[in-house]
């Protein structure tokens, strides 16, 4: 169950392909600079202070397959809150702030309070609060400037990558040429050869309605599909979280 909660926040993906240094006309793609593509993508971001959604999900790895529903609440830049249900019954809860991760699950009656090691322990990649938030909102996982990027073509999409890739990882972003929403973001971790991919097949009201996560870590594959069934913006939200008495604290190996 711990992994079921954790994977809900994971998110960035992969594929490596050397980008072209200039944008050329590939089919219906127009010749647009990387800076302009990046600016157009930023214009697709929703301007909201809070988001709440009911989400249907499916999780699969080499050990198990599970369906679930969850209630998601977010106050931008402050808190991410999730309540997970199975068969209509609450089974786990997660609350993330920029400085802390808190989690408990009712099956084994365990809890965790600490840093982002709960997430990185599972996925093998360090993610901070802002990166998790961006993944859930369909935004590039890191904040960059247009002059840091180079544009190329990949299939029928614009593809953006760093002019100079980071020594620890490679990043790639596929941008929809019609509305400039993010179609896919990718990450290759250099030290471990772990790869991650997050696809966004559908956007509505400047938020993704579907998120598809694919992770390959240490030759093990993990799949997560999320579908936002209903979404509300700028509502007054509560983020209740208290660890039940008698639960056992879990610790993670460093």
Structure description:
- With 254 residues, the protein is mainly beta.
- It has one domain (2-248): Clam (outer membrane lipoprotein receptor (LolB), chain A).
- Helix content is 12%, strand content 45%.
- The protein has four helices and 14 strands.
- It has a 14-stranded mixed β-sheet with strand order 7-8-9-10-11-12-13-1-2-3-4-5-6-14.
- It is globular.
- The two termini are 21 Å apart.
- The model is unreliable at 1-26 (pLDDT under 50).
What key phrases describe this protein's structure?
14-stranded mixed sheet, disordered N terminus, outer membrane lipoprotein receptor (LolB), chain A, 254 residues, 45% strand, 12% helix, globular, mainly beta
Quick recap of the structure?
This protein is mainly beta and 254 residues long. The protein has helices at 2-7, 34-42, 117-123, 129-137, and strands spanning 50-60, 65-75, 79-86, 89-97, 100-105, 110-114, 149-154, 157-162, 169-175, 182-189, 195-204, 207-217, 220-233, 248-249.
List the helices and strands and how they pair.
Elements: H1 2-7, H2 34-42, E1 50-60, E2 65-75, E3 79-86, E4 89-97, E5 100-105, E6 110-114, H3 117-123, H4 129-137, E7 149-154, E8 157-162, E9 169-175, E10 182-189, E11 195-204, E12 207-217, E13 220-233, E14 248-249
Parallel strand pairs: 6-14
Antiparallel strand pairs: 1-2, 1-13, 2-3, 3-4, 4-5, 5-6, 7-8, 8-9, 9-10, 10-11, 11-12, 12-13
């Amino acid at each position: 169950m711990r992994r079921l909660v954790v994977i809900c926040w994971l998110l960035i993906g992969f594929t490596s392909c050397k980008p072209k240094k200039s944008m050329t006309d590939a089919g219906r793609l127009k010749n647009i600079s990387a800076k302009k593509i990046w600016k157009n993508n930023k214009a697709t971001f929703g301007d909201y202070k809070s988001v709440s959604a009911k989400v249907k999900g499916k999780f699969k790895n080499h050990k198990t397959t599970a369906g679930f529903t969850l209630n998601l609440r977010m106050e931008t830049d402050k808190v991410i809150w999730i309540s997970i249900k199975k068969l209509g019954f609450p089974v786990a809860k997660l609350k993330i702030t920029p400085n802390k991760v808190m989690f408990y699950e009712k099956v084994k009656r365990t809890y965790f309070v600490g840093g982002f090691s709960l997430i990185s322990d599972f996925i093998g990649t360090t993610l901070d609060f802002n990166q998790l938030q961006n993944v859930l909102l369909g935004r590039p996982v890191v904040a960059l400037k247009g002059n840091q990027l180079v544009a190329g073509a990949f299939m029928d999409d614009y593809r953006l990558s760093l002019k100079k890739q980071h020594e620890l990882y490679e990043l790639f972003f596929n941008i929809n040429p019609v509305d400039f929403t993010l179609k896919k973001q990718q990450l290759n971790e250099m030290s471990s050869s772990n790869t991650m991919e997050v696809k966004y097949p559908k956007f509505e009201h400047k938020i993704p309605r579907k998120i598809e996560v694919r992770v390959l870590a240490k030759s093990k594959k993990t799949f997560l599909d999320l579908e936002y069934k209903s979404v509300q913006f700028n509502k007054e939200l509560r983020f209740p979280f208290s660890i039940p008495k008698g639960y056992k604290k879990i610790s993670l190996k460093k």
